[in-house]
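Need residues for this backbone.
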């Protein structure tokens, strides 16, 4: 169809194969693609693991969509994600005569479903080496998702997760891995099982309240020193300043306080507790300094650069959590857009560039998961950073940091 813009690389490959009459290539592309089958939400909520074949009104076709062809989430309809092999194995002799792929689009196909056809589907499935969008690569919706402007900026704040998970970075109308799997993700990873729980976690991220306050404290001490002295901050100077700040806090907490109810006399904190806190922060400063040294060696930080804040980890996750809430129907499209805009605005207030933001995100992720092993957690953070700062298709190279 002249002038048609395929929503994503998935549909473009299907369309081009069909246009050439190369149905083997079409089936290869379909075998690599996630296929989404619409389902009434009420039935899925009643039996989450049960996927139903619901044919078209004439009874002749079962409709599935590829990821780029999904409409915006609605309260009534959700999607099960399956593979071509799953359909080949699940199909029975009483099921519809056709599998309708992306009906109504230039990439559509009505595939016959005889035993020989389904054996062919399985053969194509066996031949492909990947399923779904490849991880650690930039994937975008060319229609159906913003590519420029404030909403796109807020979505790009979540690009670390989108790239590492193999998802469209600009999918605001998010379905992810399908309704039930998205609900499983939030339940298992965040203990979220309802709208209130989702909103609570999202607000905590947007307010940067989930990331460790100890990390934030250590970086804030150095940020103040760098501002005061207008230059690099020696690690020992940083440690000394952090210790002095913590001791002063302990002294202030033990002083008498005038409150509306009168004078409150506070008990001094135990010496061992204060000394333990100081030792912990000084160890943390050493860890941060060693990570930054490695960051500079690997190109995650510029020579002489340092991490200003770890707010990025909460804000990047908030950009994705907004969408996860929509995919699970815990929030609406309007909720997701508001949160994504807030994440973008907060990120711009805390950082000076995409690279600056990314270094903060990577440091927090490594502090939480890596334990200075410089293993998989470090390697994936570095790989995602390099992808987002070098791939010509990256939103970070196409959306200005300052709006």
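Answer:
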């Amino acid at each position: 169809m002249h002038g048609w813009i395929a929503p994503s690389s998935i549909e473009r490959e299907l369309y081009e194969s069909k246009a050439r009459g190369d149905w083997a290539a079409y089936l290869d592309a379909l075998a690599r693609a996630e296929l989404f089958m619409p389902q009434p939400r009420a039935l899925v909520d009643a039996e989450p693991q049960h996927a139903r074949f619901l044919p078209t009104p004439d009874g002749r076709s079962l409709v599935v969509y590829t990821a780029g062809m999904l409409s915006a989430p609605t309260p009534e309809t959700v999607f099960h994600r399956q593979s071509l092999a799953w359909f080949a194995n699940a199909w029975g002799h009483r099921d519809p005569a056709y599998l309708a792929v992306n009906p109504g689009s230039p990439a559509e196909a009505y595939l016959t479903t005889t035993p020989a056809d389904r054996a062919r589907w399985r053969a194509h499935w066996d031949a492909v080496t990947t399923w779904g969008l490849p991880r650690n690569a930039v994937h975008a919706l060319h229609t159906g998702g913003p590519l420029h402007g404030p909403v796109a900026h807020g979505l790009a704040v979540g690009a670390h997760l989108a790239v590492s998970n193999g998802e469209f970075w600009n999918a605001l109308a998010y379905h992810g891995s399908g309704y039930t799997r998205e609900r499983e993700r939030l339940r298992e990873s965040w203990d979220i099982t309802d709208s209130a729980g989702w909103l609570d976690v999202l607000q905590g991220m947007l307010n940067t309240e989930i990331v460790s306050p100890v990390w934030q404290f250590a970086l804030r001490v150095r940020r103040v020193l760098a501002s005061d002295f207008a230059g690099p901050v020696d690690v020992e100077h940083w440690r000394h300043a952090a210790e002095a700040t913590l001791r002063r806090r302990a002294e202030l907490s033990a002083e008498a306080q005038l409150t509306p109810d009168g004078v409150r006399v506070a008990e001094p904190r135990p010496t061992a507790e204060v000394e333990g806190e100081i030792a912990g922060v000084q160890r943390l400063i050493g860890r941060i300094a060693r990570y930054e040294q490695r960051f500079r060696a690997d190109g995650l930080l510029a020579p002489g650069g340092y991490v200003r804040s770890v707010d990025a980890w909460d804000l990047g996750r908030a950009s994705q959590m907004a969408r996860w809430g929509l995919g699970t129907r815990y929030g609406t499209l309007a909720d997701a857009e508001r949160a994504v805009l807030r994440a973008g605005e907060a990120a711009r207030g805390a950082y000076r560039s995409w690279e600056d933001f990314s270094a903060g995100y990577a440091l927090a992720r490594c502090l939480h998961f890596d334990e200075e092993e410089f293993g998989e957690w470090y390697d994936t953070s570095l790989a995602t950073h390099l992808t987002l700062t070098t791939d010509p298709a990256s939103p970070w190279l196409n959306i200005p940091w300052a709006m």
